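Worked problem 6 (solution included).
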Amino acid sequence: MAKPNFKFQKRQKELEKKKKNDEKLQRKMDKNSPPPSDTSDESQTDEETQ
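Solution. The predicted structure is:
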């Protein structure tokens, strides 16, 4: 019977954790990014009126 490749399993687990963490960070960034984009739209309208 073949030995299990624990390094491969560990690497796969680490990659899953990294992917999940990256997705979590992306959700946080998406959650925080809409308010600044709204303010930039307002500044554009202010520039147009001047």
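Discussion: The CA atoms of residues 24 and 30 lie 10 Å apart.
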